Amino acid sequence: MPFANAQNAQNAQNAQNAQNAQNAQAELVHAGQGSSSRLSAALDAVGIALPGQVPATAIAQGIPSPDPAAALRRLNARHRQTLLVEELVAGIVVAEAEGTARVTTATPAGEVSLTSPFHGLEGDDLEGAAQQALAGVMARRWLRAERMNEILEQQSDLMSFLALAHPISAATHPMTMALLSAIHGAAERIAVQAKAVLSVPRPADLSSAVAPVIHTPSHSAAPSGHASEAFTLAFAMEALIFGGASRELRLIAARIEENRVVAGVHYEHDGFMGRKLAALLAPVFAVRMGLEPTAPEPDRIWHRSGEDGVLTSGQSGQPGRPARVQTQAPDAGDGRVALLTRMALAEIGG
């Protein structure tokens, strides 16, 4: 599908360009408009012409010393994201262990081994596993027409879909979105490290009959980044907004995960590994937010993919769970993640 892949690449590039432009505008904007050489010259001319100016060597007012909350709120968004992600992933280690990607966490202590669907197999066994993995992909091809819009949008946007469970946006909940963006970035970072260890070929690498409808990424299939990120975000939103398992959030995350199989770029096993990784990361991030974790233990994550997997797991959560203001743990501390969580809770409660 060369035309479709070219169009998808163009759509992704357009989305990235728009995001870059938005970031640049936010960082460079003046009080009334974006930056330009003409505006800079005009501002300089007016500033020099003002009568009764304070001498250049004089300090007109006290040197500002903002409190941590004000400093975090005013921080450049890219810098804030970098600092938050570093704090979230501290103590999380990804290492190769006998052909698996072993991910360990320190607080709370946890471990999960992520595998390839072809781990340890050779000869006929490997051939059989490959055929079984492809069967799950091919069985979902009939869903492509129905889900094409979702597949295309979810290449670069997961939050718009997860926000269907509770209306939040950068305009109404800026600190909440900043927190969730950092959690997304932290999950992505760990998933990328695990992918580098496993290096699993994609479905299209095994058979041209897959004919994926979007560009096949060049990195490892397992674990699914979309599954890791969607479920990590869903579990974080449960802890932050609902205080318990939300059926809507888990179903949306499951659909995002399954859409990557429908598109032809993942096996079902990749999503399972992504869910297990999210279940490991969720309590780590919840503790750093000072909130009660809601995710199942990694060894209790369901195997079956898609919405049916959630609904038949016995861990689908409460339908229509109402949003309520959560109570942050007294020992949450004053780290940036905990501080931003307090600001997010104030937005949600407001």
What topology emerges from the helices and strands here?
Blueprint lengths: L1 H27 L8 H13 L18 H7 L2 H13 L3 E5 L2 E6 L4 E5 L8 H16 L5 H10 L5 H4 L11 H25 L4 H4 L18 H18 L4 H17 L4 H22 L16 H6 L24 H14 L1
Antiparallel strand pairs: 1-2, 2-3
Task: For the structure shown, list the relevant keywords.
350 residues, mainly alpha, Vanadium-containing Chloroperoxidase, domain 1, 3-stranded antiparallel sheet, 3 strands, 56% helix, 5% strand, globular, disordered N terminus
What does this structure look like?
This protein is mainly alpha-helical and 350 residues long. The protein has a single domain (67-349), classed as Phosphatidic acid phosphatase type 2/haloperoxidase (Vanadium-containing Chloroperoxidase, domain 1), CATH 1.20.144.10. Helices cover 56% and strands 5% of the residues. It is built from 14 helices and 3 strands. Strands 1-2-3 form a 3-stranded antiparallel sheet, covered by helices on one side. A hairpin with a 4-residue loop joins strand 2 (100-105) and strand 3. Helix 4 (77-89) crosses helix 8 (174-198). The longest helix is centred in the N-terminal third of the chain and has 27 residues, at 2-28. The radius of gyration is 23 Å and the shape is globular. The termini are far apart. The relative contact order is 0.13. The model is unreliable at 1-5 (pLDDT under 50).
Ends distance? 48 Å
Q: Going across the major beta sheet, what is the strand order?
A: 1-2-3
CATH superfamily label? Phosphatidic acid phosphatase type 2/haloperoxidase
Q: CATH class, anyone?
A: Mainly Alpha
Query: How many structurally independent domains?
Result: 1
User: Main sheet, how many strands, which sense, barrel?
Assistant: 3 strands, antiparallel
Strand residue content: under 5%
